[in-house]
Amino acid sequence: MSEPAQPVAAVEPAWTWVPPPDPPTEPAAGEERAIEPHIDPWTSDLVHVIATLCARTDPAIEAWTVTLPMDPRLLPQTELQLSLSRHRISLRFQTQSGPSLELLSRHRSLLAAMLQQALSQSREIDIELG
What we know:
By secondary structure, the chain is of the alpha+beta class. The protein has helices at about 40-55, 100-120; strands at about 65-70, 80-85, 90-95, 125-130.
């Protein structure tokens, strides 16, 4: 007799929503306000997905490319073409949506920095918007 099937473990989200902090108070005379980057959950989720895909790639595969549709609630009319090789990762966002292009433009540098930190090995990261 075969053993009964075991339930599949639930997958936890890569992030937990935390309400934004209260607006900062005005700095005292002569002080500068510290600028802290705001990390949107979609950015963290995207970095997690890309880092997971990179980590699970068979080392025998020298390069691969995949096109992923983005969540239309966050980035309407947007696709990501992700290309990975041993020394380089390329993200090409294609969109017909002005708001999507603006959002991606604002987060481009942060996305690159988060990817560099999340990847298990150092790779050149190229992010293109179109």
